[in-house]
Amino acid sequence: MRRRKTVFVDSDILVIGGGMGGCGATYESRYWGRDLKIVCVEKANIERSGAVAQGLYAINCYMGMQWNENQPEDHVRYARNDLMGLVREDLGYDIARHVDSTVHKFEEWGLPIMRDPKTGRYQREGKWQIMIHGESYKPIVAEAARKAATEVYNRIMVTHLLMDKTRPNRVAGAVGFNVRNGNFCVFRAKAVIVAAGGASHIFKPRAVGEGMGRTWYAPWSSASAYALPILAGAKMTQMENRIVLTRFKDGYGPVGAYFLHLKTYTENAYGENYEPTWYEHTRQLVGNYVDRHPVPTCLRNHALLEEVKAGRGPIRMVTKEAFQDPHKETVGWENFLGMTIGQAVVWASQNIDPKEINPELTTSEPYVMGSHATCSGAWASGPEDCAPAEYRWGYNRMMTVEGLFGAGDTIGGTAHKFSSGSFTEGRIAAKAAVKYVNDLGNDQPQVSEAEYEDLKKTVYKPLENYAVGRNEIVAGTVSPSYLLPIHGLQRLEKIMDEYVGGIGAHYTTNEPLLTRGIELLGMLKEDLAYLGAEDLHQLQRAWELQHRVLASESVTQHTLFRTETRWPGYYYRADHPKLDDKDWHCFTLSRYDRDSGKWEMEKAPVYHIID
Ligand SMILES: Cc1cc2nc3c(=O)[nH]c(=O)nc-3n(C[C@H](O)[C@H](O)[C@H](O)COP(=O)(O)OP(=O)(O)OC[C@H]3O[C@@H](n4cnc5c(N)ncnc54)[C@H](O)[C@@H]3O)c2cc1C
Q1: What is the rounded CA–CA span in Å between residue 512 and residue 541?
Q2: Of all helices (H) and strands (E), which one includes residue 95?
């Protein structure tokens, strides 16, 4: 096999992933750590990477404290309500109290935020959302990170974290490979902040074949945010809390501006308002959570799913009325042009003019993420001044592994942070990480040469498998001695879809299905040793698959552990169809032991610190 060059990079703080959380972490690390070496490593290019790559039309988390619009406590209540009672209130409060200052920075850096012509305030789309001209949102944010970082390494896929030679529960850096020149990279760091986004393509998507890349969530979000900490032994929380989105059919165009700003509404195929039909039924499942305002996102999905199951689909968004107003029509189209151009193209290709036809809605396949309307992720230590003692074992946003921090989709328990909240959480984590590094003194982590040399062999194994086995192809791309990443991905998606509650199973599962799903995932994991990669691009796909499989295993274990249906509309445990506050008003926690391959599950209490 070709010898690969090893490149060593030393840093005080290593930020993995240069999306919203990572840019926030890089920026703030420099503020508190003027003389520190701050390195940001990204598998794409931070200029246009992560979920915000295409731009956004709204910043979904802004309090507006300068105008007394909302207070941080209000946001905690809102997120708690939407997540059916279960959020880390300390972490959510911490973000909410700082998020406005982040948004003011974005404006200072050149992000055009729309203003209400009457009040002069930011134009509200909804209670928490403000409207932006956000096509260039990501480059604007990335510029701040670039200027703050000592070095940004683009095009490097991080595959594993490195652990300290002497203290096994302490992080010492990370390894990865350059997806363009194939160099092996060893990053030695005193503290690591993981901000590597969420996970798409772990469940079978609705769009397959030629449309496979068309998912709501960015197809390049490949679960590294979860797999990296899981492999390092960090505790995870709420991994069962996958998200399902109601979106415009086939293009997954966002509906927020339509509901909130254009005041459009939904109806069934016969023009009826179907949500009241399911009120009593939903009440029996979840009690008075159905009476909360606003109605939790999962319960709105639930009504839609039940209506479709009852045979009265498709569900449509009534746009014909709003689009008669030329201003609203412009806003409706611009909403897509700033963030999901594909939806406009889908409508054009399907002869849908929303002024003439009410477009169909559908529910997406499930995704895993910690920053939107769900809160899967790592279990993190909370802020000194407001976290209950049980949630505080170290520095703010440090995981249960020493020196390992996280932000954005990585950190669990804190839904509704969105782009601005993820950047803010990056800032919070960075401030704490700088303190951690300064407190280390001479007690610094040491990387083991044996560990990274072993990992080097592991990382390039798929290239070797391919080189050795490629002459044995029996037909097309089928080989008896290796598995291509796309084959592994499709197998994963099928397992998750059929056994863990994907679209093909109407989001429904039960203990026997989950148990079998775990067995099948175990067999898939065995076969991952035989992944074959034709080139560096496929090598990246191979490692993305490894990360997706590990995160999927975690999702499955958590779903099995929580014997209730907490979020109907996101998923259903058919053997435990009701919400059960008596036994399950708690967080689920897991810890993976990479030597034995076993998962340890436990419950953690939910403390309500806001009334
Ligand atoms: C479709 C969609 C629409 C949204 N709409 C809105 C909206 O209107 N308003 C709003 O405020 N928020 C919105 N959000 C939410 C917002 O985009 C996220 O909350 C935010 O981007 C999360 O930040 P993050 O840093 O955790 O992840 P990301 O911003 O996705 O960044 C993760 C980064 O990590 C990199 N990475 C991943 N794996 C690796 C690896 N192994 N090695 C190196 N780098 C890696 C990725 O390339 C990426 O750059 C939306 C999200 C989605 C998916």
Answers
A1: 31
A2: helix 89-108
- In which residue are the tokens 């949102």 written? 137
Determine the residue type at 86: L
The C-alpha torsion from 77 through 141 and 227 to 370, rounded to 10°, is: 10
Which two tokens mark 234? 């960090």
For residue 418, the CA-to-ligand 1 centroid distance in Å is: 9
Q: 61 alpha carbon to ligand 1 midpoint, in Å?
A: 14
pLDDT at 297: 95
Angle, CA of 200, 205 and 206, to the nearest 5°: 145
Q: Which amino acid is at 507?
A: Y
Bridge partner residues of 175 (DSSP)? 160, 186
Q: Is the pTM of this model over 0.90?
A: yes
- Sign of the four-CA dihedral 114, 118, 119, 125: negative
Q: Tally Cβ neighbours within 10 Å of residue 466.
A: 21
Average pLDDT per run of 10 along the chain, which is 611 residues long?
90 98 98 98 98 93 98 98 98 98 98 97 95 95 98 98 96 98 98 97 90 86 98 98 96 90 94 96 97 95 97 97 94 85 92 96 97 97 96 97 98 98 98 98 94 98 95 85 96 98 98 98 98 97 98 98 98 98 98 96 97 93
CA of 409 relative to ligand 1 center, distance in Å: 7
408 Cβ inside 6 Å of ligand 1:
yes
Question: How many degrees, rounded to 5, is the angle at CA 447 between CA 441 and CA 451?
Answer: 160
The burial of 431, by beta-carbon neighbours within 10 Å (0-12 exposed, 13-18 middle, 19 or more buried), is given as: buried
